[in-house]
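Progress note, sequence design subtask.
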């Protein structure tokens, strides 16, 4: 995907009655992921390695980041274009002060019926969980890559303990955000031996554990294909110990492939974006903390929506530009992985959000 630019000569092609654009591969726009900060209190080796995100790293300044009002305005426009689901992410989204105010604002936007949050859980406590739910948060995903402290600390690289994340999972459940999802990024020779302990721990706990293939997002995480422990191997490993069977997707375009334990102990999910790409049903746009709009996680450039929002008071103009951008979209990076795009500069995960 090259840098996003609007071809102004082209007229917006809308669905006749509802004004909802589709892209060049006939995919509608349904989900928006919003990164509310590029900062994080972890330094996960696969996302923000200390060597590149050290004490001198230049994070975005306050004025460069979208305000809650600007995000709300953008969400309003996206909702008119067909977005119903919002995921708040980062960096670490709970670092952003007063996040509940943003959730309240998004919750009040007509057409938005699902608001979720992805977090490492470090800053979650009962009071915060309750206030986020009161504001309109529907779902939460916590990230945890290992059950053993030594392995997890090696990955988060800030000595953060497993127990605190497990506590956050319980807090989220008790607060009513059930079922809670837990994301585990699986990296060959790093945490493959944690798959079974994680399975064992989260079975029967009303938590959906989701295994994510290590992705080549950005350029700083030294991704190599050999580091991917693929979906087939994950399932194969689990099947040696537990009887599981596939389950139909909840809805078209669901990213995680669902499996359930035959003994009724719950569900797991696999996000196999490397070995089983799901670009054909990708209905997702991403907004970075500084307001760049990306139509693919692996994009090399985004459209500067912040500048547009700051200079253009007319939402109709903003809507038409986003609509055109979506109509020009032909991203399918994961399907093309390994071919021509492999060497391009890509945006970092901590910047664009997961
Ligand atoms: N800080 C929050 C967290 O960790 O949950 C939210 C942002 S994080 C970028 C969102 C998700 O992306 C996390 O579950 C993380 O594990 C995942 N992630 C980050 N880098 C990844 C990579 N290279 N491959 C696969 N998943 C990745
Ligand atoms: Fe931070 Fe999440 Fe990236 Fe880890 S995965 S460094 S917690 S943004
Ligand atoms: Fe969507 Fe891009 Fe991922 Fe394909 S590679 S599923 S288009 S974000």
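Output:
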């Amino acid at each position: 995907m090259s840098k996003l630019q609007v071809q102004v000569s082209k007229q917006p092609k809308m669905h006749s009655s509802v004004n909802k654009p589709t892209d060049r591969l006939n995919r509608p726009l349904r989900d928006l992921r919003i990164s509310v900060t590029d900062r994080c209190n972890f330094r996960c080796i696969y996302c923000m390695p200390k060597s590149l995100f050290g004490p001198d790293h230049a994070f975005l300044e306050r004025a460069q980041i979208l305000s809650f009002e600007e995000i709300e305005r953008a969400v309003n426009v996206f909702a008119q274009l067909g977005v119903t689901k919002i995921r708040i992410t980062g960096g670490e989204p709970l670092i952003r002060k007063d996040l509940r105010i943003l959730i309240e604002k998004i919750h009040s936007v007509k057409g938005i019926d699902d608001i979720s949050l992805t977090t490492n859980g470090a800053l979650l406590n009962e009071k915060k969980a309750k206030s986020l739910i009161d504001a309109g948060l529907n779902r939460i995903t916590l990230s945890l890559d290992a059950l053993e402290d030594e392995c997890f600390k090696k990955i988060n690289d800030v000595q953060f303990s497993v127990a605190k994340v497990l506590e956050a999972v319980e807090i989220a459940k008790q607060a009513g955000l059930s079922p809670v999802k837990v994301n585990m990024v699986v990296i060959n020779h790093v945490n493959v031996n944690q798959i079974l302990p994680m399975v064992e721990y989260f079975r029967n706990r009303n938590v959906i554990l989701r295994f994510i293939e290590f992705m080549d997002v950005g350029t700083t995480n030294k991704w190599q294909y050999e580091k991917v422990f693929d979906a087939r191997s994950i399932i194969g490993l689990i099947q040696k110990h537990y009887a599981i069977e596939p389950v139909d997707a909840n809805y078209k375009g669901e990213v995680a492939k669902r499996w359930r334990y035959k003994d009724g102990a719950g569900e797991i999910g696999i996000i196999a974006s490397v070995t089983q790409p799901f670009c054909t049903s990708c209905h997702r746009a991403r907004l970075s903390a500084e307001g760049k709009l990306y139509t693919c996680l692996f994009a090399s450039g985004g459209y500067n929506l912040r500048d547009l929002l700051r200079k253009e008071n007319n939402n109709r103009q903003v809507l038409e530009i986003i609509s055109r951008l979506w109509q020009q979209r032909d991203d399918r990076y994961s399907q093309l992985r390994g071919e021509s795009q492999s060497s391009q500069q890509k945006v970092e995960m901590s910047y664009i959000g997961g």
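The domain at 8-352 is CATH 3.20.20.70 (TIM Barrel). Work on this subtask will continue into the next period as scheduled.
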